[in-house]
Design brief:
The chain is an alpha/beta fold. The chain has 5 helices and 7 strands. β3, α3 and β4 form a beta-alpha-beta unit.
């Protein structure tokens, strides 16, 4: 039985900024300001919205949504709330990339109206050769974006395992991490955790 969610307008704090090691209530920065005023190279790495179950059924096919684990009605509403929060704060990503899995593409389209499949975001669960290729590709792209210094931010809609492998941090359904590449250390940095209220 799912819990009732608060309406969007009751959650304009909708995403809480949680810098690593600090509680949400201690956050000094506003996530909307951080995203709007970023110096470039920022990526919102978002786990797809709620899709009940674990993993995909045996024999699933990537291009066939009927064979995959998909968003529930609650997951679709969650994705819409994410989009509503971004629109309420006049935040528009420069690009929205997504895993080709249906639950990720649907999350991207419901939240942002678009989602461009990018193989590096495809699920790495049970795909060891892909894991060794996908994670370095994501890291390299973060570094490239940081080097380009373009204004704005991207959204990457992907899977929990991909985000954990990239940023060494956990995310719940519909949650995201704000990431950037820190050139000095050559590392992926979690700037904030973005969670729906």
């Amino acid at each position: 039985m799912s819990m009732k969610r608060r309406p969007v307008l009751a959650a304009l704090a909708g995403f809480a900024l949680c810098p690593p090691g600090r509680a949400a209530g201690d956050a000094a920065a506003d996530p909307a300001v951080l995203l709007r005023g970023g110096s470039g190279g920022l990526v919102v790495a978002m786990r797809h919205a709620l899709a009940p179950g674990t993993f995909d059924p045996p024999g699933f096919r990537r291009g066939d949504c009927s064979t995959q684990r998909n968003l529930s009605d609650e997951g679709r509403e969650q994705a819409r709330r994410v989009g509503a929060w971004f629109r309420a704060h006049a935040l528009a990503p420069t690009r929205v990339r997504s895993s080709a899995w249906c639950r990720c593409l649907e999350t991207a389209r419901l939240a942002f109206g678009r989602g461009e499949p990018w193989a590096a975001l495809d699920s790495i669960v049970g795909q060891r050769p892909h894991e060794t290729a996908h994670v370095p590709e994501m890291r390299a792209e973060l570094a490239r974006l940081a080097g380009a210094g373009a204004a704005g931010f991207e959204v990457w809609v992907t899977h929990q395992a991909n985000i954990a492998a990239l940023a060494d941090a956990a995310t719940g359904s519909g949650e995201a991490l704000l990431l950037r590449h820190e050139r000095r250390r050559g590392a992926v940095v979690v700037v904030a955790a973005l969670r729906i209220a």
